[in-house]
Write the structure tokens for this entry.
Amino acid sequence: MRTKLLFKSVLFLVIPIFVTITQDRAKDKSRDRTSINTTPNQRIIGTWQLENSIADKLEFTSNGIINHYIDNVIDISGTYEITANCSENTSSTKLYLKETDSDGDVYCSTILAGVYADGEEVLTLLGDTGKILVYIRQ
């Protein structure tokens, strides 16, 4: 009787842990396949937090809208496009994040990296001012 109770207790504890680990692995594999089989325009969709600032976030929507947040409040909103041509910049090897604000002003950032680093997806941009900005997917 005691053995059955111990066995049931162990199963009760082990099965949820196994299910959780299996689900986490499935999510990781799905995430890897998704990043391989999608375009940069699809991969950028979501919310990104500036590496050294909890307050600063970018949100890229599927309909081409970019929202800049400061302290979870939209500070600037505009449109975005990932392109090989941005203003006077044209490249066959680089991609640019082209942002257009509500006044029609265009800002170009070179996309330096969009890779996984230590399990986090990272977006690294070189702004038109020469400053490197690192964002982590939320």
